[in-house]
Specification:
221 residues; alpha+beta
Length: 221
């Protein structure tokens, strides 16, 4: 059952669950002032030289694609961990490609653990990983959690469903679910993420183990 969104706490329904896609539901919004995404002319380049489209939704400018950098914005390399044991035992930043296949990164972007998010160096200079509050504003601007999932899949946001790498190192759900870290932690071991599914219009959020690998979206400072 999907729980009603609380601005104070998440229910932690996904902690220690290998499938985190049963996320908490955000508060329904009866918002008649829906803001359509505006595609911008300017692009953004990361430390790897990848160029991203940008779009404006309400008061915020977002990357129009999932992040795929292999370097922090100070040009230092982000460790690419392939081995499952190394992945699940790591408490510092790392990334991977789905099924350790760089070809998937071209379309879906990379999967980062939350420790990489927490370095504050993951996004291009002048940008940051979206917070829970910024995702919440996006949901309000697009008309509420009941429709936002579909809108993000259909418009210039390009919410490609990149799956995940669990805290145990296993890959799953590519093409079925998209999971994006927020910059907001809930406790020592968990942080908030948001979720969009292939067969639902809902936009969901919950928290999960920081060792998991999720997609990332950046917002301009």
């Amino acid at each position: 059952m999907i729980a009603v969104f609380s601005v104070l706490l998440v229910t932690n329904c996904t902690k220690d669950n290998e499938n985190p896609n049963n996320s908490d539901n955000q508060n329904n919004q009866d918002n008649s002032d829906v803001k359509e995404p505006i595609v911008n002319e300017n692009t953004v380049t990361d430390a790897d030289g990848n160029v991203y489209s940008t779009l404006t939704i309400g008061d915020f400018m977002w990357l129009g694609e999932n992040l795929k950098t292999t370097k922090y914005n100070d040009s230092t390399d982000i460790p690419n961990l392939i081995d499952n044991n190394e992945w699940k035992n790591l408490s510092s930043g790392a990334y991977c490609w789905y099924n350790n296949s760089p070809g998937d990164g071209i379309m879906y972007g990379a999967l980062y653990n939350w420790h990489a998010v927490n370095t504050k160096k993951l996004c291009p200079t002048g940008w940051h990983v979206a917070t829970d509050e910024e995702w919440t504003e996006l949901v309000k601007d697009l008309g509420g959690n009941d429709v936002t999932g579909d809108k993000l899949k259909e418009n210039a946001f390009k919410a490609l469903l990149g799956g995940l790498r669990s805290d145990n190192g296993d890959f799953s759900w590519i093409g079925s679910f998209g999971n994006w870290w927020t910059a907001t932690e809930t406790d020592t071991d968990h942080a908030l993420y948001v979720n969009v599914g292939e067969n639902t219009s809902l936009f969901l959020r919950a928290d999960y183990d920081k060792r998991a690998g999720f997609s990332v979206r950046c917002v301009r400072d």
